[in-house]
Prior knowledge:
Structural class: alpha/beta
Shape: globular
Number of strands: 20
Amino acid sequence: MIVKLESERLALQGRLDVQKSANERNRMGQFATPTVLAVEMLRCAKALLGDRECVHFMDPAIGTGSFYSAFLNVFPDSFIGSTVGYEVDPHYGRPAARLWSSTGLDMRLEDFTQAKAPDPSSRFNLLICNPPYVRHHHIASGWKKQLQERTLIASGMEINGLAGLYCYFLCLSHAWMSRGGLAGWLIPSEFMDVNYGRAVKRYLLDKVTLLHIHRFAPNDVQFNDALVSSAVVWLRNDIPKAGHEVRFTYGGTMERPVLDRLVPSDILCENSKWTHYPMKKNHGANNGPVLGDIFRIKRGLVTGNNDYFILSDREIAQRELPMEAFRPILPSPRYVPVDEIQGDRKGNPMLERRLFLLDPPWNEDEIMERYPSLWVYLEEGRAQGINDRYTCRHRKLWYTQEIRPPAPFVCTYLGRSDRKNGRPFRFILNNSEATAANVYLMLYPKESARCALQDNPVLKRQVWQMLNKISPQAMLGEGRVYGGGLHKLEPRELGNVSARAVVGLFD
């Protein structure tokens, strides 16, 4: 019977999904859990629960019921007590309620985040959920404030305003779990590294016993229609004991991971980046020199509108704009096929794609009087509303850029782990006078390093070569990863990369 119902559920899921646009489902965070993964999670739940006489199951975001179907498949009827599912969207909830009507599921077509938590005697000892992946900017401010208040009451956690909806789901569910109850969450792994994930990590370490985190390899995207790197988090509703260790696994499946390691919870309290584990073999802090000791690392500049502010030399000539109003800027990394950029006599990068950044040093009266073609171009920008964009309207003159002088070394900000050379990030030697946009990180030598580079011109190339010898693992360990193997490094993260070999060049 369950096999037949699961087949019907999959067909139903397909029909309902195509009736919604991809944008609408993305906005509501509606990404169904694959059957194989749902079954694996319920098998893990059964192993963690042990021999219980009666399991009370709940899914706060049940959708069409992939986890409920797996629950019925894995647990014998004699183990099953009450079963409850919440679904806010009637598009999925009503058909799912009809599908499971003969199984005893209590299907509640309402918003779990607004529901009243049950009395302790009616709480659940198994909670499994793939919460909606709704980003913070899709959560209305009034709703967000309510969520923060309710979450504080339910779990004592103050959730950052940049957190996604899944963070609220996880902490709100605390009031629905029985003492000693088990919960399994399929959520984005980004909470392990980002600032807004701190409250979630405090909850996992202080309010409950964190049992196991399995992180899927970034190239193994669990959802065909959502580019997100996923993790499964297992917790028990008990205060953690002293000396507790958390199991971290990575790659493969939960039952057969590629890497498996126990990490003391005390270490996790001290470490802000959990994606180090289980790859990190030792738990001590890195006390050696890091890139931040040698360089001031800045994100490239944010123009406010690249299409408007960045022009090719041909476009500048066609519009008869004054070249004095522009400075050279590096194109996107995909248009930079080399790792060393030479400059011409004027300092412009010798690349096929030659781009320039509009950054005039004059006020509007001077431009109107002396550079009529530029004035016309600025008027076009105003007509397009570019001057009212957030970045532009917060500048003294809306058309001038932030200060980002040329940097001798730049590093790509984003990269994929499936690059042929195995290096998702590139260090580029910049011998030109070009600045860079925010698709790059710019490395400015600090005073002692700057003086050494001035005294020894050969040193610049040696430093660049040594930067490119930094292992990909060291870079990836400090950055963050998204679905599909997309890696990102923020300035502070790049600054934390070990730099022992680079520092040795300055001795």
